[in-house]
Amino acid sequence: MGKNIRRSIYSVVLFMGLSLSGFTQTIITGKIYDAQTREPMPFVNVLLKNTTVGTSSDFEGNYKITTYTNSDSLLVSYIGYTPIAKAIKNHQTQTIDIFLSPEAAALTEVTIHPGENPAWKIMRKVMEHKEQNDPSYIPAYQYEIYNKLEFDLNNIPKSAENKKLLKPVNFIFKNIDSSNVKEKPYLPVFISEAVSDYYYRTNPRFKKEVIKATQFSGFKNQSVGQFTGDMYQNVDIYKNTFLIFGQEFNSPITYSWNVFYKYYLIDSVNLDGHWCYHIQFKPKHKQDFAFSGNMWIADTSYALQRLEMTMPSDVNINFVQGFSVIQEYTQVDKKYWMQSKNKLIIDFALDKKGTGIYGRKTTLYDNFIINQPKDDKFYDITNNIEVLDSAEYHTTKYWDSIRQEPLSKNEKNIYKMVDTVQSLPIYRHAYSATVLLVTGYHTFGNFDLGPITNLFSYNTVEGPRLKFGGRTSDLFSQWYELSGYVAYGFLDEKFKYNFGFKTYITKTPWQQIEMHYTDDLQILGRSDDIFGRDNILTSLLSRSPVGNLTRVQETKFTYDRDIFTGLEMKISYIDRIFSPLGNNVYIFTGDYGQHFTKPNITAPALQLYMNFSYDDKYILANMSRTELGTRYPTLILQYTAGLQGIFGGDYLYHKIVIGFNQILHINPFGDTHYSIVAGKIFGTVPYPLMELHPGNETYIYDDNSYNMMNYYEFASDKYIGLNIEHHFEGFFFNKVPFFRKLKWREVAGGKFLIGSVNPKNEQLLIFPSTLRSLNSGPYSEADLGIENIFKFFRVDALWRLSYLNDPGISRFAIMGTLQLIF
After folding, report:
1. Above 80 in pLDDT, residue 311?
2. Which of 345, 685, 730, 816 has its CA 20 to 30 A from that of 791?
3. Buried b vs exposed e over 63-73: b needs ≥16 C-beta within 10 Å?
4. In whole angstroms, what is the distance from residue 607 CA to residue 164 CA?
5. Interhelix angle 409-422/425-439, nearest 10 degrees
6. 3-class SS at 356?
């Protein structure tokens, strides 16, 4: 009996051992390449033969399968390429790289005699049906959106596993298969989810998104809630062109389709019950702003049903190592084709081998309601992106019930992982360094010190100048901000200072009050460029010592609000006292021609400023915001009224300034940036209250200045100026192999100014020797430049074209500047 029991136990143990050996995992990893171009291929289907176990390659072509299921081979397929099978070994870890060859139909353009490429016939039908398939032509619709957005630090070398700074997250490295030397780990730094309702009406055009639930882990500011929605992140394939990273790309279904793309009819297939034409496309010319990919066009309706496209690696875009789009469409009400899924994958890095940021955005659309518009009161133009107050306060149970697609196990862990990563000193140091580089401020808890570049400067009046300043951070308050600085000149031995306060009244709509007082030295009329007068770089790179300074004591109160999205209004009370410095003296002319001096000019005024930018969007950074720009013209109107006899005001006048600027995208020749500004003063005023046209006496190129004009050279009380600059985006250089590799880009432009000064204004206060009017003719200058040098620099050659005999001017100059552009 005992012997039989022992034999049974041995049999069970042996059976279990044999069974467990059968359950050893099979791990297959590798990378998939295009056999011709040797480029990695994303979204390729990988399947174990005779099983349902499979995956698809990621953005960089990597794939991984971990399974207990047995199979004898790996099946790899992608539409337009010849399928391939590779033998595998069960219950072992192995690396298998795959090289797929395009099918014969995709190798060369299809030519039929007599006739034409059959894909062209289908593309013409797509164009004929484009408007009826474009959702933007539907009178009204709404749907629910689920957005998932994730950013990771990628391409982290495995050597980082042994770094002390990364020990708290060593578990990330342990999850990487050590047998695959090509796979590198990533660190998640941000993940967000959002559920929103989107509303659209055609006439009058209106769109609105109500974000009703959002959750995120990672860096946060006021913009995050908006960016988790859909209006800030979308690629509308039915538009002829769309902006990506500031560059205008051509859609594969643009009306100029045969100008920018080559097309190949690959096959016709049944896709979700609809017979479709599979068409492959690629750019017609290298480095064109176009995509490579595949699309499936539904028969009869000729609507887009599925799209897969990738930005070619040779496109002249900085820091973007890859960008891919997958879109799926579904038929609603048996008539309209609406997008049901959208996936964007972006790979940012300074170079291909360096650590970068990997972004993934998945959007799902559901609950479509067509042609049932809301009541007119619903279409409130004051705010087209609304984040509900309750959006951040939802339970896990709520999220599980509302998600259109459940989170994977790894995605659930990311929320915890991100918080761990952000606790690392290396992350905090990298984040602080990035903020310092972008804003010039360094955060110390509740206080931001900066701008750091303004700590030291030099001019002929103050000599060496030290300046310490800062502001309260968003950790101190997200509703108000205190700011200020103190500066000291070692030559004039005097202190200068500023203190300010601003606070929100409401955040939706944007509504602020700002107050500040400044007692400092200024170059009147100088542009508010990115460097500023007391920046160390402008001191080191000045063409001549900085002088012509005026002491300005300014008190300013401003009420700032959005009337509606895109229309901003500011109402200000400004009280300024101008005092000349050094040998400069204010010499006035009396009613009978006599001259007399005054120690200063007092000029209180009321000012109304309005800025209209249709369809503009903003990035919010606590108490300030930055415009992302719009393809439409921006209109600026400013009216100033001088207050004579009020608060000591010396002059009664009215000043009107109208500005107009736009970026015109002219495919394939680049972008034209232009701005027109005109102004007129009604009344008699001294030159400090006129338009002192901004000059530039440094070697740093400034978009907002007349770069060949000196400071304090020209004044006007009536003027109109034009600034035009064309960025060719490498249109010519891309045709030359050597320059194509450098990815330099050409720039050409000019600035033109017509102005005059009323004789009464010119006689009121005698102009200093350096200042004159433009009564004798217009001012002009021209420049030719190269930008994107080493991705960060721009160099310009500039020529002054008028007023060439004025003393102290330069007829020609070479200038440079730092850039951060895509």
Report:
1. yes
2. 345
3. bbbebeeebee
4. 57
5. 70
6. strand
One DSSP character per residue, 674-740 reads EEEEEEEEES---GGGSEE-----BSB--TTS-TTSPTT-BEESEEEEEEEEEE-TTTTGGGSHHHH
* Three-state DSSP state, 474: coil
What distance in Å separates the CA atoms of residue 459 and residue 523, rounded to the nearest whole number?
11
**Backbone phi and psi for residue 312, each to the nearest 5 degrees, phi listed first:** -60, 150
Tokens of 623: 């108490």
Task: Give per-residue burial for 639-653: e unless 16+ CB within 10 Å, then b.
Answer: ebbbbeeeeebbbeb
- For the beta carbon of residue 354, count every other beta carbon within 10 angstroms: 10
Backbone torsion region of residue 7, taken as left when φ is above 0, otherwise alpha when ψ lies between -120 and 50, otherwise beta:
alpha
pLDDT of residue 334 exceeding 80: yes
Q: What pLDDT band is residue 531 in, cutting at 50, 70 and 90?
A: low
DSSP state of 81: B
Is the CB of residue 311 less than 8 Å from the CB of residue 116?
Answer: no
Task: Name the 3-class secondary structure at 140.
Answer: strand
What CA–CA distance (Å, rounded) separates 641 from 809?
A: 35
pLDDT digits (tens, 9 = 90+) for 229-257: 444 457 889 988 888 877 888 899 998 88
**Strands 26-34 and 93-95: what pairing?**
parallel
SS (H, E, C) 248-284: EEECCCCCCHHHHEEEEEEEEEEECCEEEEEEEEEEC
Report which secondary-structure segment, H or E, holds 439: helix 425-439
431-441 confidence digits (pLDDT tens): 777 778 777 88
Residue among 470, 478, 483, 482 at smallest CA distance from 444: 470
CA 258 – CA 277 distance, rounded (Å)? 18
pLDDT digits (tens, 9 = 90+) for 499-509: 999 999 988 78
pTM of the model as a whole:
0.75
Q: Are 292 and 281 in contact (CB under 8 A)?
A: yes
The residue type at 730: G
Distances (CA, A) of 121 to 62, 127, 222, 393, 741: 36, 10, 49, 53, 36
What local confidence, expressed as pLDDT, does residue 246 receive? 74
pLDDT in tens, 379-428: 766 667 788 888 888 888 888 888 888 887 667 777 777 767 667 776 67
